[in-house]
Amino acid sequence: xxxxxxxxQTSRFEDEIAFYRDIAGLSxxxxxxxxxxSMVFLSDAAGDTCIEIIGxxxxxxxxxxxxxxxxxxxxxxxxxxxLLGLGLECTPMIEPGPGVRFFFVRDPAGLRVQFMG
Length: 117
Fold this sequence. Notes:
Blueprint: E1 6-10, H1 13-23, E2 27-31, E3 39-43, E4 50-55, E5 68-72, H2 76-85, E6 94-97, E7 100-106, E8 112-116
């Protein structure tokens, strides 16, 4: 089996799209807004990573401290510095072993997102 997509329901629909587009580097694959639905699918070029974002005005912020989604990046420290410069709160770099380093940041919906590289 293959993981098809991760769905995030959020009251911050446009901010959520911008986060995964501008920070995670995903592109809008399918946009249901022209059909009157607050739903967008974003994916990487290969279509292996897919995030479904659904606008839900009453959605509560994600408060799941033990849940995160992770992305591989070429330079995690540089990305962390960029995000800090944008005013986002990031964890310190975590280096649990040789060649492994990552940090976490929360997306606009409150979901913990890990960037490793």
